[in-house]
Amino acid sequence: MDQMTDMMKMMPASMMQDSMMQNMDMMAMQECMEASNACMQACTMCSDAMSGMDGMGMCASMCAMCADVCSTMMKMMMRPMSMSADTMMPMLQACIAMCRATMDECAMHADMSETCRMCMMAAETCMKACEKMMASMGA
Question: How far apart are CA 58 and CA 30, in angstroms?
Fold first, then answer.
């Protein structure tokens, strides 16, 4: 597994050589990709867990939307050849907003649901990673 992880970390850097965003902080990008992936997974599981519970429709829906946004964010970063600040900044802002909303929603249920607590933490981590990436891009 470590060899695969190492390869996945090197891949974006090798692709960035010909990209419009050659000066991007690759560590911030890698952290953002990993946080987006973890958040997508946590939100998907939380959405599934909450969808069958009475009164948890908002939480389930919020988590499902956050999972979609995080998945899209991660996929955009996996395609660095077409990256530009004009497309990345609005997407990072959307991901931050969605993670914040999901974090706030899950925080209301974190004391009664371990799934919501973990989802809240993953959303916060993703939000911070996106903010760090934006800062590394000069925003």
Answer: 31
Nearest C-alpha neighbor of 105 from the set 61, 138, 39, 74: 61
Residue closest to 131 by CA, chosen among 8, 31, 43, 6: 31
Rg (CA), the chain: 16
The whole-angstrom distance between residue 83's C-alpha and the CA centroid of its chain comes to 17
- Render pLDDT for 76-102 as a digit per residue (tens, 0 to 9): 988 877 778 888 999 999 999 999 999
Model pLDDT, residue 74 = 92
The tokens for 27 are 């560590």
Q: Which two tokens stand for residue 98?
A: 């969605």
The enclosing H or E element of 84 equals: none
Nearest to 76 by CA among 117, 33, 127, 20: 33
Amino acid at 115: T
Helices (H), 17-139: 26-51, 57-77, 85-107, 114-136
pLDDT digits (tens, 9 = 90+) for 108-129: 999 999 999 999 999 999 999 9
Q: Is 138 exposed, middle or buried (0-12, 13-18, 19+ CB in 10 A)?
A: exposed
pLDDT for residue 84: 82
Longest dimension (CA), the chain: 51
